[in-house]
Structures are given as structure tokens and as C-alpha cells.
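re: ur question from earlier - yeah i can do the single chain one, its not a big deal. heres the input i used so u can compare w yours
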Amino acid sequence: MSNIFGTRYPIVCSAMNKLSDANLAIAAHRAGCLPCLLYSEPKEIYKFLNETGSTNFSIFINNEAYESNPNFAKEIVVIQPAFVERVAFNHHNVIDMFKQDNIKIITRTNIVQPKTVKQSDIIYLKGSESAGAYGSMTAEELINAYKELTDLPLIVSGAIDSPAKVKHFLSQGASAVVVGSLFAASAESKLDIKIKKQICELTATSLNTEIMPDKRTIVIDQYQAKDPYAHNHDDLVKGIQGQKGHVFFSETINSINRIMTVSEIVQFLMYEYEPQLEKH
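and the output i got, formated as C-alpha cells:
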């Protein structure tokens, strides 16, 4: 199955803060998806390269990550990853440098605005159904709006947890889908096994939402974040380490009732496209 990423399947393993390490990326690569690694974690990027020898992956970058280590941008040019995914990134000269070296730029957005398409090769639409999403527009509303705005390829996230949703979004014009929550609870994810088991038992309606109002949140050890919007930084890191903190999940949590490998998850999601795959 051909797609814009040159992978077997039109599935992107979402950038998920500290969860996006080399082990998860390697599993996604071997399962036929596009892996994503973090600009803020160079060691994980090199570990992935050494293990797979592949440059067909995406590096997630934002202002904070870049400004904490601006020199690493030059290393990225040498590494030559196929894609760089940006969100709230204002260093346009750095994007120009990447594009001059044929690195394709994925721009993540949850709103509709013409400037989003500038310096972009692919638009990543983060629907309001997604874990930790701030926008008010659903994935389908974003797809419909951007199809009128641009001819650039669109990829979409929005609580994607079934073959039917994959088929629906691809039929609506998305070139690929972005999967996060399912992979976050996978066997290869670095989340503590106790947290994964907790996820398998919870539903979207049972999650504690005190830290982030109106966002689906798993609270670990009843930890209360000093900054309720610090979910990309220290508070979430603590949660991932299996201590105190919080982790965001979409309504996909309703579909997670056992710990599956990344490969099993992909085969399940793509079942309607490749019926010969064993359904799990």
C-alpha cells in the first residue's frame, strides 16, 4: 500500500512527549508505520538510526526544544530524516534550512488559517477528539476546511481506534492517520506496566479530569500539577516515570482492554485493507 510516507501503511505513530523513545519508534518502523522521535532527545534518535539504519522517520520540534539546543538543528541536516514535524515553531530560518536539504515539513494545527500552509509539505490536523487537544474543531471539520484551503497532503488525528475510523478518514481525504493513545498503551511503550493495566480497566467517562478541565486525563497517585498546562513538560515526565503526574488519553481508552504490541495494533487497524491479516 503506497502512501506519502513510503511506509507499508498510512499510519503515523504520534509524537507523545517522553513516550516517543527509540524502542517505540523501532516497533512502529518494523510494523510498517512512520515513527516519530523528539528533537529534545538526540540519544533516542541516534539509537533508532543505529538499530534500523533508516532515515524514514519524523522529528518533532517546537520552540522550547529548539531553543534549549539550537546546535542540534545542524545535526538534523546531517542525519537527513525524511520529515520534521513542527508545532508552535517560529524559527522560520531553521525550517528553510531543513527544506533546502529536502527534509519535508509537517505542520501540526488545530485551527484553520491560511498561513499554516506556508513552509509546509504536509498538514497534520489535530481534531478536538485527540488526547490533550485544545482546539474546538473535530478532525472531520478540519479535513473539510483544509481541503478547500490547500492541495497539500493532510494527515489527521482524532481518537482513531478502529478499522472503520481509519477507512472513514482516508475516504474523507486524509493521506494518513495519526495514532497516539493505542500506541501509548502498547507493549513497547515505556509507560509503567501498572499504568498500562490501569488504562485497560478505565473508560473515558471514569477518568479524573481535575488537572486539565474538559481533557481526558489519567491522574497517577492523585498528583496535582502546579501548572495545569504543563502536560508537555515536568508534570507529564513524572507521570511517565511511574511516579506522580498525569497522562492524556482520548476516548480511544474505551477500546483498550489488553496490552497489545505495536504490530498487533497496526494489523487490527488495517484489517479492512488487508483481510489476510489475522484479526486480533
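The two ends are 21 Å apart (CA to CA). not sure if urs matches, ping me
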